[in-house]
Amino acid sequence: xxxxxxxxxxxxxxxxxxxxxxxxxxxxxxxxxxxxxxxxxxxxxxxxxxxxxxxxxxxxxxxxxxxxxxxxxxxxxxxxxxxxxxxxxxxxxxxxxxxxxxxxxxxxxxxxxxxxxxxxxxxxxxxxxxxxxxxxxxxxxxxxxxxxxxxxxxxxxxxxxxxxxxxxxxxxxxxxxxxxxxxxxxxxxxxxxxxxxxxxxxxxxxxxxxxxxxxxxxxxxxxxxxxxxxxxxxxxxxxxxxxxxxxxxxxxxxxxxxxxxxxxxxxxxxxxxxxxxxxxxxxxxxxxxxxxxxxxxxxxxxxxxxxxxxxxxxxxxxxxxxxxxxxxxxxxxxxxxxxxxxxxxxxxxxxxxxxxxxxxxxxxxxxxxxxxxxxxxxxxxxx
Length: 383
Fold this sequence. Notes:
Layout: H1 2-22, E1 26-27, E2 38-39, E3 55-70, E4 75-87, E5 91-92, E6 100-102, E7 117-118, E8 121-127, E9 137-142, E10 147-159, E11 171-179, E12 188-190, E13 215-221, E14 225-228, E15 232-244, H2 247-264, H3 275-299, H4 308-336, H5 350-381
Parallel strand pairs: 1-2, 3-12
Antiparallel strand pairs: 2-5, 3-4, 4-10, 6-9, 7-11, 8-10, 9-10, 11-15, 13-15, 14-15
Protein name: Neurotransmitter-gated ion-channel ligand-binding domain-containing protein
Subcellular location: Cell membrane; Membrane
Signal peptide: 1-23
């Protein structure tokens, strides 16, 4: 009799061990070994823990880096450490002295966790920790709070609709949005990503460290958001504000082109008879500006948009073209004006033409100044 009871007990313990090895969640009134999870339901709790309202998921995102900003293909890469936390009161731990339980791969299929969907996603790469046997996601159950904490290191390629109309004084707004699409907002709801919950981040915004200095970036939370498709869904995420660092464009474009415009005014000091010298100077400067504009569009295809930089280049070309027109007008007068006046007296019109050069020499800086002021007003007030 006692022998049979002993055999039955051994078999029962063996069944419990096998079930735990398989990852099945045991009922809390069953005998257990180790620190396995248990539930009053038993078997599997792979459905959302809905109780008096939707499951509330708190997200914690720390941006590690933001790089590979590809304005031609309208995307960028962001490296993040994402953490998601939700409460599941159905689960307990039989060992009262256990504060947390790491969910292993054999138990993972039997507990519910959200399938996070990243909007505007082009590509994603996950990373595993040393000693994690290739596991890229870490799920921990906090026993006292009855809360799951899911952490994962991700590298995401995100689509962003860059608008280059105000280049190089443009300000871009991009989003990193995530949620779940297999459960509507009545079942799963995101409480938002608040910056005060981000580990080492204490302010509402911060400057992201980056290996490139093309943009200065600030990151904000978008809070709790919803969208309606066939049903109402919940999502949250980050709003990334990027302001272009325009300093290098002043040195590469604005200042050199302004110098070319100023040099073109020297043509008014060259004698009218020096056709090769005067026309050579103006044509050379004009071709330099045309070549600069063409090469810029070839190296940066997204500059096909006629923006602020294009307006500046076109304005400089027009201002250099005006002395060419003025000189052409002078040559026309010299060639077709009569050599004698109505009284038959020989006349020399070159002094009058020279005075016209001096007038243009004083007018062109005024024209350029008006253009610069108008350009600055357009930059300041354009949307």
